[in-house]
Design goal:
The protein is an alpha/beta fold. The protein has 2 domains: about 200 residues, DHBP synthase (Alpha-Beta Complex), CATH 3.90.870.10; about 80 residues, Rossmann fold (3-Layer(aba) Sandwich). The longest helix is centred in the C-terminal third of the chain and has 16 residues. The protein starts with a strand and ends with a helix. The relative contact order is 0.15. The model has no long low-confidence stretch (mean pLDDT about 95). Magnesium ion (MG) binds next to loops. Magnesium ion binds next to loops. Its EC number is 2.7.7.87. InterPro entries: DHBP_synth_RibB-like_a/b_dom, Sua5-like_dom, Sua5/YwlC_C, Sua5_C, T(6)A37_SUA5, TC-AMP_synthase_SUA5.
């Protein structure tokens, strides 16, 4: 059931979380499928509902730093500094895990991924639930991420206890994931651009992309994919015959000859493009096209996250 984030509905959603239920809720990145991070049985339902392999660890969401001792063992000074700068916001930090977090959440790893979302509904929900909330994106495993409540409803609707509708998400791509070991390691490009992290940290080592050996099994080379076959290609690389039956996901300009075209940002703004990425793919995927072609975008700022998602979708 989809409900608006009224006082009453938030109270109900929070109670569901406390009692081991599954609640889909908006964050500033994508919609999350939440359960109490301290309740192994509730977390097991997340994996079951998404069809997600249990070797793929979850991100734990907190509403205030006071919740961190329930989740992590210690907060190193560098993490503190990053939280000052980027929280609440789309930066996930991988830190040593507390004994209270069930190992199902972290896929048996000694570390846990944690973030404080910058969305009033998410924050209010977690605060009221009074427990840290484990939440992957609220989509079937491997499929496009949800940026609207209706995306969740259409794919997981009957299987979650409640979907809280907070409208379209702001960033449209997932959080950036940073591992804080001996030195920081970027595990996933996301809504906080690498450039912003490097302002604080200096040059950051990357562990991203299909060619890297994954540090955790969760970094799968194929992911975020529509059901329609998708390929990265500039318009001129697609034969005129193929265009007639294909959709094109354009960055800024409308190419000729395609059956349908979605433009991510007419002004060429990468933030706007990221915010529209999954929504445009959801729309194209519903048209029973023979193929979707996606235009490469510049790999700077949010363009890195966009290209990461498109590469994996097309693998
Ligand atoms: O923006 C987001 O991060 C969204 C919203 C809902 O917050 N959540 C999200 O979760 O994208 P999910 O499940 O789609 O991505 C979780 C990924 C895993 O696949 C893995 O790559 C990484 O986070 N991860 C989780 N725990 C980890 C750990 N202990 N060490 C390294 N990576 C970890
Ligand atoms: Mg996901």
């Amino acid at each position: 059931m989809v409900v608006l984030p009224t006082e009453e509905n938030l109270q109900r959603a929070a109670a569901l979380l406390r009692l081991g239920g599954l609640v889909a809720f908006p964050t500033e990145t994508v919609y999350g499928l939440g359960a109490s991070a301290l309740d192994a049985q509730a977390v097991a339902r997340i994996f079951e509902t998404k069809g997600r392999p249990t070797f793929d660890p979850l991100i734990v969401h907190v509403a205030e730093r006071g919740m961190l001792p329930q989740v992590v063992e210690a907060v190193p000074p560098l993490a503190e500094e990053l939280m000052d700068r980027f929280w609440p916001g789309p930066l996930t930090l991988v830190l040593p895990k507390s004994g209270r977090v069930p190992s199902l959440v972290t896929a048996g790893l000694p570390t846990v991924a944690v973030r404080m979302p910058a969305h009033p509904v998410a924050l209010e929900l977690i605060r009221r639930a009074g427990v840290p909330v484990a939440a992957p994106s609220a989509n079937p495993f491997g499929y496009l991420s949800p940026t609207r409540a209706e995306h969740v409803e259409r794919t997981l609707g009957g299987r979650v206890d409640l979907i809280v509708d907070g409208g379209r998400t702001q960033f449209g791509v997932e959080s950036t994931i940073l591992w804080l070991g001996e030195r920081p390691l970027l595990l996933r490009h996301g809504a906080v651009p690498l450039e912003a992290l490097e302002e604080v940290l200096g040059p950051v080592e990357l562990q991203v992309g299909p060619k890297q050996r994954p540090l955790v099994p969760g970094q799968l080379p194929q992911h975020y994919a529509p059901r329609t076959p998708i390929r990265l290609a500039y318009p001129h690389e697609v034969a005129p015959e193929e265009r007639k039956e294909a959709g094109y996901l354009a960055f800024r300009d409308v190419p000729k000859g395609f059956k349908v075209v979605k433009v991510l940002s007419p002004t060429g703004d990468l933030r706007e493009a990221a915010a529209h990425l999954f929504e445009a793919l959801h729309q194209l995927d519903r048209l029973s096209l023979k193929a979707i072609y996606a235009e490469p975008v510049p790999e700077v700022g949010l363009g890195r996250a966009i290209m990461d998602r498109l590469r994996r979708a097309s693998n």
